[in-house]
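As a next step, we paired sequence with structure tokens, yielding the entry below.
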Amino acid sequence: MPRPEPSIAPATAVEGLAREGLIDPPPGSAVPPDHDGTGRVQLAFTPSGRAVSVPPGVTVFDAASWNGIAIDSTCGGHGTCKKCKVRISDPEQSAGLPISRLDARAFSAGELRAGWRLACRAAAVRDLAVEVPPLTTRPKAATVGIGRQVILRPAVQKRYVELGEPTLSDQRPDIDRLTEAIDDLDVRPTLHALRRLPQVLRRADFAVTAVVVDEVLIDVEEGDTTGTRHAIAFDLGTTTVVATLLDLSTGTPVSVHSMLNKQQPYGADVITRISATMLDPEALPRLQRLAQATLDELVGEVCAEADIQRTQVYEVALAGNATMTSLVLGIDPEPLGVAPFIMVAGSFAGLTAADLGLRIHPQAPALVFPSLGAYVGGDIVAGMLASGVDRDKRLRLFIDVGTNCEIVLGDGERILATAAPAGPAFEGGAIRCGMRAAPGAIEVVRVGGDDVTCQAIGAEEPRGLCGSGLVDAVAELVRVGVIDASGRFATTDVVAQSLPGLVDRLTTIGDERVFVLAWRGLPGDVSDSVYVSQRDVRELQFAKAAIATGWSLLLEELGVEPADVQQVLLAGSFGAYLSPGNAVRIGLVPRLPVLRIVSAGNVAGEGAKMTLLSAAERAGAQTLLREVRYVELSDRADFNDRFVDELAFPS
């Protein structure tokens, strides 16, 4: 990853801080003597208790990332998100640590005095004791979604047989004896199964269970184990990963867990993670290890909750975008991030769970969903499979809202797909008070009369704003006239006349106008409150304009009008908690009756589950690749003009 040099703020930027003696002179060319004689500096991180040794000048953020210590960030350490907040707990050390321009913008004078710094701008030129705020590893996420009913015919099959023992007159090989007894399956054994077969047969007195996946004999187990066969479906998201453990005997999910993708320190979106691999040759193996560690940790959690052994999981299916799929497999993603945006492969055959770093049955196959293109990946193919876009004759619009927004339009005969660069606003990135959908994040905002009501996740005191809360807040402020159609805050005089009870909430921080949603700290202390800034509104406008441009161009390609759309499916975790009415109000989706707008939830996970429960559905995923036509937005000469037209909020 890049190692930015510390940026020292000029006196004019932090005059008050300089007068208080909070800023040291820029460090000279000489590096302070180290304390262990190695020429390196020591960083002690709390509360993890980890101590690391790094070369002088490395940023605290990089030092932590290199050593597997997660610090919150959505930009990957590039200094744009201002979320990698850490505290240098030793007053003497913090007093000697220069304050960058970004530090001065991110923290109050009191916080800087207390040792708070941005980790990506804090250069470790001396030993430091670093306190890292706890990272929310369990953001609120959609773990289920809409799907179709399927006939329960999993690829994983078990057959219990009681074989006759060999004799001098019956010297058939062990494998022939077994396969002839399984007369309804034409199986071929793996070397693993052959190695186990002699001992297992004789220990079990020739009463064994054959484990077959797609007509491949992967194992032989002692006794009758037909009642235990499981598989795991993964939705490998850029932000959140969801694992669902399925009982293949009944077709029911027995455990579902989700967690933050451990790749998070490398950025909130696929572009920053691709950039990390381009800038640092060691980033790709690190990102692969982090993705695989996320998946494997979830395996342990779902198996523990269901009280089954890892080796009783015989197959997995994974749906992820093209970049996440490449990273978890250790494939260089650079061609995905530069024009003309080329995948190494659309489909991956013959993979095993071990290729994904999973410690389950050693011969378990792994089904990885194929991708349609660099930015319409396997998660969208899985979502299309689950929602039946190729089966439903209604004109339907499928939108997976995220940093990269995938859009599908289909009427059962024609299917178009595209991707729009929405940016990190919906994940809380690039938002002044933005945070992930974790306890304390405002997710619902209502403005009624002269009052503002906020609902935070977990019924906790508000401490930030997640994506759905941002949409709610802006939509409500547009509705009451605090924000006009252009996205600009109304003047104080206008608000004072129409909504006098809200005028105290409309204020400024520096030169930027903000609207306070929830007061915190000292009365009237805006900087410590949760607010929406003018820049936040612009970020949301850019995101929604990219999405609206995408679906409007698809409608044009298909020769239909927005009013013709009979159903809009909002997919993904963000879509699951987004207010349909507010999505219409800000122009994120076509202006339709709200009953036509459906929260589809985790349809990618549903598609992955379907392929595990019914082997026949796997052909459907491949068929979709042939039936869907991809529309490249960046190749459209009119994209920029259309984008500008969509920036305004509907009046």
Notes: Residues 387-424+540-645 form a domain with the Nucleotidyltransferase; domain 5 fold (CATH 3.30.420.40). Residues 1-36 have pLDDT under 50 and may be disordered. The first strand starts at residue 41 and ends at 46. Residues 52 and 540 are 39 Å apart (CA to CA).
